[in-house]
Specification:
There is one protein chain. By secondary structure, the protein is of the alpha+beta class. The chain has two domains: 15-124, Mlu1-box Binding Protein, DNA-binding Domain (Roll); 131-161. Helix content is 50%, strand content 8%. It has seven helices and four strands; from the N terminus they run αββααβαβααα. It has helices at residues 15-21, 33-40, 44-53, 68-77, 96-106, 109-145, 151-161; strands at 22-25, 28-32, 63-65, 92-94. It has a four-stranded antiparallel β-sheet with strand order 1-2-4-3. Helix 6 (109-145) runs antiparallel to helix 7 (151-161). The longest helix is centred in the last third of the chain and has 37 residues, at 109-145. The protein is globular.
């Protein structure tokens, strides 16, 4: 079976798309209940209902609820989660093991099929992280081996390895007019 396809050849979701929904919260890679429900083809309400009915299957290392601060940070950093901003409910997040368990309690063919791709996305991220750490260690070893003449090169490589800072969004609405030099009337 090809990644992202069912036996019938129907495209479900590429691993890369699922990987984009995986966030880092409390030092763990997790996926939000709404994203997981979407992947499994059920409403978020139904997913959470099944989790509540099977609470013993979801210890803290499988699933936990975000705090208000964590929710605000997630909404601020992820464009596709804007709908959560005004929701009074605090979302649940699932680790890799929790996502698999959620598929088993939902007991639908799509959830079982998608759980395979969700696991592959978590594994893909784990491999990327491991290769990033390996690359960083090799870079440090090379830096020690060669003298300062390559410092600029090493600094440039390190800059490429660091993730870009989130873009600062412009506030909506009107603000005071800021004149830039040369925009005056000359008087």
């Amino acid at each position: 079976m090809e990644a992202g396809k069912t036996k019938e050849g129907e495209t479900i979701a590429p691993v890369e798309r699922i990987a984009q929904a995986i966030l880092r919260v409390r030092g763990q890679k997790v996926i939000l209940d709404a994203d997981l429900a979407g992947l499994y083809g059920v409403p978020t309400k139904r997913l959470n209902e099944q989790v509540r009915r099977n609470r013993a299957r979801f210890p803290e290392d499988f699933m936990f609820q975000l705090t208000s601060e964590e929710k605000a940070e997630v909404v601020a950093n992820c464009d596709h989660l804007g709908r959560l901003k005004y929701s009074p409910a605090l979302p649940m997040v699932f680790t890799e093991h929790g996502a698999i368990m959620a598929a088993s309690v939902l007991n639908s063919k799509r959830a079982v099929d998608m759980s395979v791709f969700v696991v592959r996305a978590f594994v893909h991220l784990r491999q990327l992280f491991a290769s990033h750490e390996t690359l960083a260690r090799k870079l440090v070893a090379l830096e020690r081996k060669y003298d300062a003449q390559f410092k600029v090169v090493f600094d440039a490589i390190r800059a490429l390895m660091t993730p870009p800072a989130p873009k600062k969004k412009r506030p909506i609405g009107f603000g005071p007019w800021e004149e830039s030099p040369g925009n005056g009337d000359g008087g």
